[in-house]
Amino acid sequence: MSGRSPFFAIFPSIALPIFIALVDQSVITTAMPFVASELGEVARITWPVTAYLVAAAVAAPIYGRLGDMYGRKRLMAVGLLISTLGSISCFMAGSMTMLTATRVLQGLGAGGLMSLSSALMGQAVGPRERGKYQAYIATVAVTANSLGPVIGGFLTEHFGWRSIFLLNPILVALALVLLMRLKLTNAPSEKKGIDLLGAVFLAIAFTSLVVAIDALRHGDSPPVGRLAVVSTILALAVAALVWWERRVPTPLLPRQVFANPSIRRSNAMALCQGALMLGLYALLPVYLRVTLGISASEIGTAMVPMVGATAIGATITGRMVSMTGWTTLFPGVGFSMLAALLLLFGLLAPDLGRTGLAIWFTCTTIWLGTVMPTVQIIVLAEGEPQDFGAITSVTQLSRSLGAATGTAIVPVIMLLTPGLGAETLQNLLDGAGGDPEVAKPAFRNAFVALALIAALGATFAARVPRRSI
């Protein structure tokens, strides 16, 4: 099925679930300094963000496979209901541990919304038209990421951070109404069965990775015993996952995803993009709070042009792909520019002020938009229609893996920097005293690390065999 009419017949129904999943992901970022201030445990400041990403990543392949088997529309409704249950639970959380656990539930609901939406879009339009339509989806996604911090900052400042979790039930109610109007259905996949054991191995591996990274936050005295145990569990879980996925008839992670070099390297690009986007969005609120001392709503407002620039980049890239048929040229250039700009900022640490910072990072984040639409276009062009749900879910898994890793590793790099400990950072976030100059080396290291990730993404883009559609 192709053409403008079929796409716009489903677009309203798939746009809102994407918006919900990504607003829930980003709305908490500007609130986290204030959540940590109330609940304590500043060393775990990114746990609620990371927990959501881990849960969403593990759930995505299951939603994808179930959607191919039993209907993507039906599975999307299930995901929406679970996400709103998680949001209500987050509202009632009384500790950082409880908030982290309830964010897991929220992430389990959101896990399939992005991949199922991409699969429905691939069902509705032809390969060459997907560029501009994927740009629309990317624009919705980035708009959600853009509005999330603004909404989070506004609600946190005026109503307290718990109020950010009351937005989800309202949006989910509307999304369910729109979903009932959706007429598009998919033919059941011939591949039956759910790889639950694979999901267990994946969850253990993913969680172990995040816990291992978190253990490094103790600076010069990391918990060596815990780190050794968690690293061993991680290695065993990865080995078990690889062994099992090669033998099970219907693997959680479709074999064609790894056998096809274009899909494999596109997913590697998605991983790098996820790490960059969420790592940068987690770092910037802390950077702005510490260096400028501004409030949550001011942080959200300052980030609007930075995050909105990514939507512009995605829109331009999608239309350029549709016009030219070129694919990997755009993320290759985008990753290279990101690497250069982040490296320059990290090394020079210019004192630009609020306006100057907004301009610099607007010019930086526009290049993030070159990746998301291109990756989805390549993956859908290489995959089989009946398996779109399973294939796109692995792309979402890759992006979530990158996002979780990027979000977790930024504070690790900062807290491992000599001179900046958790207590010092807590005081700076609280505005309770301390010299912001102490944090400059830590911020430099974090920005340089993100630049290296961008350089890795550029390398993957250069090696994707599928150069055009």
Automatic annotation (TrEMBL):
It is found in: Membrane. The chain crosses the membrane at residues 7-25, 45-63, 75-98, 104-121, 133-155, 161-182, 194-213, 225-245, 266-287, 299-317, 329-349, 355-380, 401-422, 442-462. It comes from Pseudooceanicola pacificus. Pfam families: MFS_1 (PF07690). The keyword Protein biosynthesis does not apply. SUPFAM superfamilies: MFS general substrate transporter. Keywords: Membrane, Transmembrane, Transmembrane helix. GO terms for cellular component: plasma membrane. Residues 10-469 form the Major facilitator superfamily (MFS) profile domain. One of its GO terms (molecular function) is transmembrane transporter activity. It is a multi-pass membrane protein. The keyword Membrane applies. Coiled coil: none annotated. This is MFS transporter.
